[in-house]
Structure formats: structure tokens, C-alpha cells
Amino acid sequence: MPTPHGPRRARIAFSDSAAKQLDTITSEAELHALDRALVVISVDPEAGELLPGDSSGPRLRQYVDDVERVRLVYWVTALKTVVVVAFIEV
């Protein structure tokens, strides 16, 4: 029987540098655009494309929304329950 609330979303956590970037966003339109992008990756953490790199660290992903003009660089933890945003560009 399906759950009444739909699939579980990933929890979003921000690195210190991303939290500082959040503090500088004051435009309501930019906050709305960022919120929409965060919803996308919380529903599907694999939505972004893998960035080139080696396997010594976390595999970074990049999600770009050209319509909203948002770019997020993030990684997904091994448990795939937490998406950590490493860079925000609105």
C-alpha cells in the first residue's frame, strides 16, 4: 500500500560557506528561485549532473536551472538521505 504522503524527500544541509552565501541573498525573487531548486534536489538527489573528479572525496553534483537562473553544487551522503549544498549561485 503506498504511503499517503508520497515519497520521502532528502533533508537539505548547508556547508558553512553555503550558509554565508544564503545570508547575502535578500531578493524575494532569488529566494523563491533557490527554494524551487532545493525542492527539485530534495525530491531527486540525482537530478544534477556529476562533475568530473576522482573518487577520493565526495562525488560532487551540479544542478542548473536555466529558467530560474540557479546553480547548486552539492553532494549526496552515503545514506542518500541528506543533500549537502556546497555552492549557491542565484
Q: How do the strands and helices of this protein lay out in sequence?
A:
Elements: E1 11-14, H1 16-24, H2 28-43, E2 49-50, E3 61-65, E4 70-76, E5 82-89
Parallel strand pairs: 1-5
Antiparallel strand pairs: 2-3, 3-4, 4-5
Write up this protein:
The structure is a single chain. The protein is an alpha+beta fold and 90 residues long. 28% of the residues lie in helices and 29% in strands. It has helices spanning 16-24, 28-43; strands at residues 11-14, 49-50, 61-65, 70-76, 82-89. A five-stranded mixed sheet has the order 1-5-4-3-2. The N and C termini lie far apart (40 Å). The mean pLDDT is 87.
- Compute the number of helices: 2
**Range of helix content:** 25-40%
What is the ordering of alpha helices and beta strands? EHHEEEE
Average pLDDT, all residues: 87
Distance between the termini: 40 Å
Low-confidence stretches: none
What is the overall silhouette?
Answer: globular
Percent strand = 25-35%
**How many distinct beta strands?**
5
| Helix-and-strand structural type | alpha+beta
